[in-house]
Design brief:
By secondary structure, the protein is α/β, with parallel strands linked by helices. The protein has 2 domains: about 220 residues, Rossmann fold; about 80 residues, Alpha-Beta Plaits, CATH 3.30.70. The chain is built from 12 helices and 13 strands. Strands 5-6-7-3-8-9 form a 6-stranded mixed sheet, with helices on both faces. Strands 11-12-10-13 form a 4-stranded antiparallel sheet, with no helix packed on it. Helix 3 runs parallel beside helix 5. The longest helix has 16 residues. It is elongated and about 75 Å long. The two termini are about 40 Å apart. The structure holds adenosine-5'-diphosphate. Adenosine-5'-diphosphate (ADP) binds next to strand 2 and helix 1.
Length: about 300
């Protein structure tokens, strides 16, 4: 399996701000890799390092087998990039942007470009300053995909797109990787990422906190279990179990988030003569919250549903 992106011990500081700290991950050909984290986590900085737009403070970056700071031109020819803040020339039309990009890149399949324009119903004949955010985003997507790059680096690609076009985008991503090309998709929204990615890394405060498949993450996601007792009980017996987090305890009801096996918590509940038990299956949103904030409060978990 050929490696498309390899990042090792990557750090970038701006003055005394550590934007990215000891980040490492590998993306292989034909994979959709998600890069997920809250605002300010270090996603854009990592992307700029991948594109050779920044020099790393320390660590190593390899993109398509090259050092992006040395081979900027070669990298940009083979990479399609959709920035989070798309900068277009306000007075030019979408068509003028696409024609300009085609001249710069030299090798654009015009039939493929036209199909992309149709699929996204991109408006090409008005100055881009008169277009909504969603309509500008469609032009950004065509610009990123139209030269059939080996690697797509997409920052919040579906921002402003309606649900039908989000589905169209997901289909395009699947077709792209089916051709053996590779997609790196960055976002702060779990929904945008989980519907298309194979694997994902979660970044927080400049550090990777977990890298796994969506399925693997789902298996590790906390299940919520609630026990009811005849009398108020002391939740300490639950709190000391591994893989158990007490979300709340009041009036004989205890709510737990379980990340490990259920047996130990069930045994404690049985010893305390539980009257009733309800359980809810794993939820990626909750898992996401546990990584975003070390110890989610019950309210945060509830609000995330
Ligand atoms: P994200 O894309 O995940 O929202 P960024 O990579 O933009 O996060 O930012 C990570 C951190 O680095 C933030 O604290 C941000 O304020 C800081 N940062 C990013 N770029 C610069 C810069 N050019 N100068 C100073 N600080 C920066």
């Amino acid at each position: 399996m050929s490696v498309v992106i390899e990042v090792e011990g990557l750090s970038k500081t701006f003055g005394n701000v550590r934007a990215v700290s000891d980040v490492g991950f590998t993306v292989t050909a034909g994979e959709v890799f998600g890069f997920l984290g809250p605002n300010g986590a270090g996603k854009s900085t990592t992307i700029r390092l991948l594109l050779g737009l920044y020099h790393a403070t320390s660590g190593r970056v390899s993109v398509l087998g090259r050092d992006p700071t040395r081979d900027v031109v070669a990298i940009h020819r083979r990479v399609g990039y959709l920035p989070g803040e798309l900068a277009l020339y306000p007075k030019l039309t979408g068509r003028q942007h696409l024609d300009f990009a085609a001249r710069v890149r030299g090798e654009v399949d015009h039939a493929y470009r036209d199909r992309l324009v149709d699929r996204f119903s991109a408006e090409l004949d008005r100055p881009v300053r008169t277009l909504s955010k969603g309509n500008r985003q469609k032009i950004g997507l065509v610009l990123a995909f139209m030269h059939r790059p080996d690697l797509l680096i997409l920052d919040e690609p579906t921002a402003g797109l309606d649900p039908l076009l989000q589905e169209e985008f997901a289909r395009l991503v699947r077709e792209t990787v089916a051709e053996g090309r590779t997609v790196f998709l960055s976002s702060h929204e779990l929904d945008e990422v989980q519907r298309v990615v194979d694997r994902l890394a979660i970044i927080k405060d400049g550090k990777i906190v977990v890298t796994d498949t969506v399925e693997g993450l789902r298996r590790a996601a906390p299940r919520t279990v609630e026990f009811t007792f005849a009398h108020p009980i002391d939740p300490a017996a639950f709190a000391e179990l591994d893989g158990v987090h007490v979300l709340s305890s009041a009036d004989g009801r205890v709510r737990l988030a379980l990340t490990g096996p259920a047996g130990p918590a069930l045994r404690v509940a049985a010893d305390l003569d539980a009257l009733d038990v309800t359980a809810r299956s794993a939820d990626l949103d909750e898992l996401f919250l546990t990584y975003y904030r070390e110890h989610p409060t019950e309210r945060e978990v509830r609000d995330a549903r």
